[in-house]
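$ run holo --ligand "flavin-adenine dinucleotide" --emit tokens
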Amino acid sequence: MDKRIYLAEKPTSYWIASTPETGYPSLDQDLHADVAIVGGGIAGITTAYLLTLEGLRVAVIEADRILRGTTGHTTAKLTSQHALIYDKLIGRFGKDLALQYANANESAIRWVWKIAKEQNIDCDLSEQDAYVYTQKEENRDGIDREIEAALELGIKAEFAERIPFDIPVAGAVRFKNQAQFHPLKFLLPLAKEIENRGGRIFENSRAVELEEKEKPSVAVKNGAKVTADRVVVASHYPFINKEGLYFARIYVDRSYALGIRAKEKYPGGMYINAEDPSRSMRSQPDGDGELILVVGEKHKTGQGVDTMLHYENLMDFADEIFTVEDIPYRWSTQDCMTLDGVPYVGRYAKDNPDVYVATGYGKWGMTNAIASAHLIRDLIVKGESPYGEIYDPSRMATGAAIGNFVVQNANVVGQLLGGKLAPLPDDVELEKGEARVVEIDGHRAGAYRDRDGAVHVVDTTCTHLGCELNWNSAEKTWDCPCHGSRFTYEGEVVEGPANNPLNSVKNTNIVERVATDQF
Ligand SMILES: Cc1cc2nc3c(=O)[nH]c(=O)nc-3n(C[C@H](O)[C@H](O)[C@H](O)COP(=O)(O)OP(=O)(O)OC[C@H]3O[C@@H](n4cnc5c(N)ncnc54)[C@H](O)[C@@H]3O)c2cc1C
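-- output --
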């Protein structure tokens, strides 16, 4: 049976669907702020909030609506357990720096509890144990090593024989006293508080340029500018290419989520497996009872062959564990990955004291972004941070990171050339809901026929650095396999680093094929 018919036709994040839409104005005239923050995700909003508490005037510049990027599509586990990380961190950076990472993330959890209590924010925050489990006997050793490493860093870690689901498990590491929350219910009140304290938030204002004169300024698409003493780049993938070589040090990875209702009650706890394909679970109370989030699968953005297949794999996994009664939500999203698995947070470039960056959370940005906000606040206000060294964007690459640099950049070159050289059909038939890459007047183009039968043809050359885009059937977007930019089928930017839309192409020779099956 075709499982796809059980999935909502359009991806919808539970977090976004269950909170009101914001309506901040767009930036239409020049202004001055103490700090300009590009990006209104968890990193940008938390940084802006902390800086307003210090009495600084901030301006948040958001390309779309705030909190609708990766933060609006996350799993929202609040944990310092980032899969199996501490054994690797101690091996790569030594105990002192691994301790900075552990402390930064543990403190982030405590900070959420503190702010939720102080500000009386009802954000479904609850204490949960977090588990990484393995189903393979040969990976038991990795679990044992992680427990040892975590204990060495003062984290309350322990071994668990099993997890409360009917699947075979060879062992698990449990971190006690971790948490989960509804990220938008927590962050939307912080955004309000930013305004109450004199900060400004601008939506539908895509930053396209950073000018560095006596003071830095950020220009948005319509030409209006925010000049500031300091600029924080919290745009997920840095929106500017100059300095720092971030485009060669970040790759972008997508994953998928199902929000299911099941016959069984969820037993509590947050779970992730230690191997690929990744499987992650938590529950979420909501008006109609309990939603269970089943998250996982992964591929580099723009490199998934049939992206709907990833949902099917998650449906199979959910069926193994639960009696699934409904799947009201499905969504997917992506995060920036660094070469050594630690985010880049701090000065954008070594010799640039006024511009900061916060990126590369490796799918663990709920606590890491809060840690980043504290780090950047401390750098701006005090000139130093207790976590500065481990997150330093200019840190030297270690052996593993150098290897990863070679692998990731070879992949980018392969995608760049492969996309340009692949032979293409120059006349095609398209069903409604179908997309193909075609050749039009000697150029590669992407054609999509919408539900009403209209054909949309765009130039598939990414406006960021020129890679050729691939179709994402689950989201109906054109995605860049090199740096993760995404575009609607009409060519508008969905997410950067690209700042400019795709060129549209005149449709000459695409005819309609009558659908033979459901899509
Ligand atoms: C499937 C999945 C599950 C995850 N689950 C967890 C989890 O359980 N726990 C956890 O800790 N982490 C998790 N993460 C990671 C976490 O969700 C992210 O790291 C985090 O949300 C990133 O926040 P951000 O603020 O950096 O980015 P975003 O939330 O994407 O915010 C960046 C904002 O910048 C804006 N922007 C971009 N370019 C521009 C521009 N040029 N001008 C103006 N604005 C711009 C965007 O529109 C966006 O609103 C998960 C990630 C994935 C992919």
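-- notes --
The longest helix spans residues 95-118.
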